[in-house]
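Hi R.,

Here's the chain you asked about this morning:
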Amino acid sequence: MAGQPPPTTPHHVAELIHEYDTITEEDIEEIKKALEGGRMAEAASKIMENLEALDKVPLDIAVTGESGSGKSSFVNAIRGLGDEDDGAAPTGVVETTIVPTAYPHPKHSHVTVWDLPGIGTPNFQSSTYLEQVNFSHYDFFILIASERFKSNHAQLAHEIQKLGKRFYFVRSKVDVDLEAAKKRRPRAYSEELVLGEIRDNCQQCLRNEGINSPQVFLLSSWELTKYDFMALEDTLENELPEHKRHAFLLALPNISLEVLQRKKEAFQKQIWKWAIISCGVAAVPIPGLSVACDVTILMKSLSKYRQSFGLDDESLKKLAKQVAKPVEDIKAVIKSPLAKEISRDVVLKLLTKAGAGGLMVVEYFAYTVPILGSLVAGGISFGTTYCMLRNSLNEVSEDAQRVLIKALESHVGKGS
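And the predicted structure, written out as tokens:
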């Protein structure tokens, strides 16, 4: 064995409890139900069904507003695409959307952003709009305005509310307003004051149309990292049902360290499930270790990490193009071998490396979750797999942070 695990003291247990996600009562009930058949393989199969169902949860986001408000650019931006990328919604100075048009996420096909026709056009009046665009199909609505919110927006919001769905007001193109204000009043210019004026004006317009306590998010589709995008993301994450929230979070573009951290936390909550699945099906023994797991399943979960954090070749090339920097410079900050290759040999090496900590993980779960502890106490397979996934997730998320920082440095340097 590659070394002995350190002794487990109360201090070590406290560290583990802080590091690992706490298993909820709902999770424990799930384990109990999965073990009704008394066989590990059956438990693994039922948990796999749970994870696969979570990955296939459909999320349909409707984006609407008046013609020329920047709907299509927002549809592209929230999917991590530029207006000229393959699969992007067409944009223009005139209304380019004449029927509800679906734009699947390029990496998460179960997440779809719908570009709806502009409200207030001759063919789409607010009174009949929802029926025309198949209202019931969408999980929530983004109502976009590029200037002030008008009666069309308010009427549509009232109709959406009547039918029991959520809507969010987005004021787009604030970067254009800021630039204009800076040119008009260069000496007195204050970005904070201008943004405050825009927000107050939007809220007042909506109040005048009968919307109580309206919340308006100020955005620029060209600079999602600025202004209110994270506030919008927070609101959606808090208000969406749990299963929809997971789909929304993983589909977000990797535009900030905060988004990357939240994705990491979402994956952390699944590690124990992958460990049970991996150790409960086809055995792949590793010489020198008491480990049996399914390497193919582990390769699948590691591939999800790499793709979701944007470390696959396609994502890195796209990012390098966006910031006008050689892709080699972006890749130079990556340290984890998982960003380069996810193969059977790589996974076996990672499992071997993680073996020393496997027993401590088993002892932790036996200490905090007896039902799971008794399940894996017969060996260190579960603990070793858990350690490998935890360590790999940490490495990949740290690489994603380094890549983002490098890209943002490049972007700042280019514009200075």
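Residues 57-255 form a domain with the Rossmann fold fold (CATH 3.40.50.300).

Let me know if you need anything else.
M.
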